[in-house]
């Protein structure tokens, strides 16, 4: 367990005063988490937060009528990792906030230890998976999400994770020239869908945006099987 010196700082944006008070009391009981700031809106957080939190827990729908995607983008652009929470699962919103840069999506019917685990995951720079997010991705059939063949997806995920093309080919069980062809197909499919993808960073963004982190060990023809790690 980290010491208090290295505790993860958490800011919470929610317009429910009772919830904010409860979060303050709860976080005070967890040694490795520290409440930095609470606010009813993103504007208020940016105006009053004393420093930049390691993780911002953001309510999906705020009373000021602000758009969830805009709220996420504003916070992410300032370097704040965001964990979105919601009273009820919103399939479309779940996908949209991840595409906007959020590092996780969780409904409020999870218990507090699950929220704490999600906060720790986001603080490590990882994507906090949840059953709701997995369901949102599985239901996302919008035309700007290309249909990738299993090996195309396996090559994409492995390459975007930082592996060399040679290492990717070895992992998937194909030749490097074939791996390159798969990558070229993936880029073309994203471009055709109106989401230009040219560089390795672009590919990494597409993996995050489309929830392909759910297939971290995908390879060969087994790549279509989900191996997601969900928040307990």
Automatic annotation (TrEMBL):
Matches recorded under Gene3D superfamilies: 3.40.50.2300
Modified residues (4-aspartylphosphate): 59
Entry keywords, A to Z: DNA-binding, Phosphoprotein
Domain of life: Bacteria
SUPFAM superfamilies hit by this protein: C-terminal effector domain of the bipartite response regulators, CheY-like
Electron transport among keywords: no
Record's protein name: DNA-binding response regulator
